[in-house]
Amino acid sequence: MKTPQFTVVTPCYRTAACIPELYRRLVAVFTELGATFELIFVDDGSPQNDWQQIVSLAHTDHRIRGLQLSRNYGQHFAIQAGLQHSAGDWVIVMDCDLQDPPEAIPELYRAALQGYDLVQARRGLRQDTWLRRTASRCYCRIFNFLSERSMDSAIANFCLMKREVAAAVSGFCERNQNLPMFLELVGFHKQVVDVPHSGRFSGRSAYSLARLYRLGLGVMVAHSNRPLRLSIQFGLLLSAGAVLFGLFTLGRYFWLSSVPEGWTTLALLLCFLGGLGFANLGIIGLYLGMVFDEVKRRPLYVVRQTLRPVESQPVQGLAAGDVP
């Protein structure tokens, strides 16, 4: 039987203290599996010494590869960069903060051997703050309503996929990158495995509530046109209400010979309809802005330098320099 070859893709941002521990635990896992592997650490423009940690480890282990992006593009762009540079038969995506336990990889692989192309990890009791968990659940409910899909808030980036799945996902060149959404779109035969969730090994999450809001809004607009359809439906409903109110007013005029005074009502209706009109323009503006960003066809990321690059180069990214 062919020895499986794995590629682990992990984005790094302010996780310098986590990198050596993640490396140690990954080596132990793959040694136990008896598998060959490579580790791709993607430095997403971290202001800490993440890249120095990656270079230091690479000098002691040839299985470590690194990508240093020219600036902070975002977690999902860093994942895309790693996927486009991966070479293994199986590709694993996991966060660098060790909230995803590397010891769960054998369980994911055993599930994949049952005939699945993609195995996603579903987090157990989440070791996040109450506010973070609540925001995640609310986001998923709103997203599921708008996109008419079924996203599980307990499923994040930790997954194992075949080479074919990784190739399909790396073909997405959209400006709003989101790995779980892309995995949903590409299909394939997939399974979900429950895994424990740990607290962060070191540091704090780089995602503030404001950044989570922007990310969530971008993903919802990118993957759903339901807000536009709801605007149309609500507009038709208001029009129908206006017609009925007009008929009611005409009825009072002809049968009761009176027209109700409605300056306050009129002012409220004008304010309401004016606000609704601006809201609809805002929704349309979001979609137009997204189209504007897409048609520019700018690269998703720029690689400042790489450690041990492979011959195949990514399509959407630009490489500025290599480190042997």
Describe this structure in words.
48% of the residues lie in helices and 18% in strands. The chain has ten helices and ten strands. Strands 1, 2, 3, 4, 5, 6, 7, 8, 9 and 10 form a ten-stranded mixed sheet that branches. Helix 5 packs parallel to helix 8. The C terminus is likely disordered.
CATH architecture of the largest domain: Alpha-Beta Complex
Main β-sheet: number of strands, strand sense, barrel status? 10 strands, mixed
- Broad structural category: alpha/beta
- Averaging pLDDT over every residue, what do you get? 77
Instruction: Report helical residue fraction.
Output: 40-55%
Distance between the termini: 33 Å
CATH class of the largest domain: Alpha Beta
Proportion of strand residues: 15-25%
In sequence order, what are the helices and strands, one letter per element? EHEHEHEHEHEHHEHHHEEE
The number of helices is 10
Instruction: Tell how many strands the DSSP assignment holds.
Output: 10
Number of domains: 2
Full CATH superfamily name of the largest domain: Spore Coat Polysaccharide Biosynthesis Protein SpsA, Chain A
| Radius of gyration, CA atoms, in whole angstroms | 25 Å
Envelope shape: elongated
CATH fold type of the largest domain: Spore Coat Polysaccharide Biosynthesis Protein SpsA, Chain A
Uncertain parts? 311-316, 318-324
